[in-house]
Amino acid sequence: MSFAWPAALLLLLLLPLAAAAYVLAQQRRGKYTVRFTNLDLLASVVERTPGWRRHIPSVLYLLGLAALFLALARPHMDVSVPRDGTVILVSDISGSMNATDIKPTRLGAAQASAKSLVAQLPDGFRVALVSFSNAVQVRVSPTTDRKVVNRAIDGLVPNGGTAMGEAILQALDLIQQDAQVNQKAPSPATATPTPTPTPAPGDPARPKAVIVLMSDGAGNTGIDPIDAAAQAKDQGIPIFTIALGTADGVAEVRDNAGRLRRVAVPPDPDTLKQVAATTGAQFFDAPSADQLQAVYKGLGQKIGSDTESRDVSVAFVGAGVAFVVVAGALSLAWFSRFP
């Protein structure tokens, strides 16, 4: 929490003084009672003492004053605000995604985690799905229809090589097409644009479009992924990358003769780190299904919301007034007076 006018916090120093004055007043009242020598008469006048209840209204008044003093300091809190934009999910479906070092398979874990990310994004966020093996395929163009995206994710089948660089270029094309469509046909709700916060340096969550690239192996066909990442950097598009699998992963893949062979399929974290670093985004390592799920969950929160500082003075004013009103009500109900 921060304060727009921190000097007002000095008023809080008055509260200990008020509390001390209250304690002294209570002590003086006790001495006066002792000096009342006719105890029989005192007992007939005061049927019962209020005990600890007599302190409650005063404590509530002090709490109310504290809240009002804090409100004068104009407190601000960081809050998470849903945003809109476009995320392109780029998924590796090469033959190595059949590996079972991640249960049930690498692809099965990736499908479940990708759907959890889609579910976390705000309703207005557009999602697209691009898959790549030997070739690149646009499974779903940017859309807000989550059912369509989830069906496409469920339909992914592993086969072939790893055209990672080509998949990045295809994702960039989708982002450009999506931007052109939204510029030509703005919705009535967005006809009058609202100011957009200026992206903070090095903050990849601010751009209107991002790419989330998940792969379990090295690119082995098409353009070099690092060269494709350089184009993404030029366009201001961050690419979050995820290396899926373990170093000892093994998968059954078909060779050129069509025969199944068991081959080692370790991920390629070095290339994915470079891709993310080139675009100013982050790299994640996911050697298990649980870790992959955690990565996608964190990305959903990061991509789908912004953190804004908001003035919460009204909340403190409300709390202060509530404390004062309750204190007055209790004092009137119990003692027929204000403290």
**Class of secondary structure makeup:** alpha/beta
How many domain units?
Answer: 2
How would you name the oligomeric state of the polypeptide chains in this document? single chain
Report the CATH superfamily of the largest domain: von Willebrand factor, type A domain
> Can you count the beta strands?
11
Query: Could you spell the SSE succession in H and E letters?
Result: EHHHEEHEEHHEHEEEHEHEH
Low-confidence region ranges:
187-205
Beta percentage is 15-25%
- In DSSP terms (H or I, runs of 4 or more residues), the helix count works out at 10
The biggest sheet amounts to: 6 strands, mixed
Radius of gyration: 32 Å
Q: What is the residue-mean pLDDT, rounded to a whole number?
A: 82
CATH topology of the largest domain: Rossmann fold
- What is the first-to-last residue Cα distance? 33 Å
State the CATH class of the largest domain: Alpha Beta
Fold topology:
Blueprint: E1 2-3, H1 14-35, H2 39-45, H3 56-72, E2 75-82, E3 86-92, H4 106-120, E4 126-132, E5 136-143, H5 146-154, H6 164-184, E6 209-215, H7 225-234, E7 239-244, E8 250-254, E9 260-264, H8 269-279, E10 283-286, H9 289-304, E11 305-311, H10 313-335
Parallel strand pairs: 3-4, 3-6, 6-7, 7-10
Antiparallel strand pairs: 1-2, 2-11, 4-5, 8-9
Helix pairs in contact: 1-3, 3-10, 4-5, 4-9, 6-7, 7-8
Can you offer a commentary on this structure?
This protein is an alpha/beta fold and 339 residues long. It folds into two domains: 2-78 and 310-335, no CATH class; 83-183 and 204-287, 3-Layer(aba) Sandwich (Rossmann fold). The protein has ten helices and eleven strands. It has helices at residues 14-35, 39-45, 56-72, 106-120, 146-154, 164-184, 225-234, 269-279, 289-304, 313-335, and strands spanning 2-3, 75-82, 86-92, 126-132, 136-143, 209-215, 239-244, 250-254, 260-264, 283-286, 305-311. The strands form three sheets. A six-stranded mixed β-sheet has the order 5-4-3-6-7-10, with helices on both faces. α1 (14-35) runs antiparallel to α3 (56-72), α6 (164-184) packs parallel to α7 and α7 (225-234) packs parallel to α8. The longest helix is centred in the last third of the chain and has 23 residues, at 313-335. The protein is elongated.
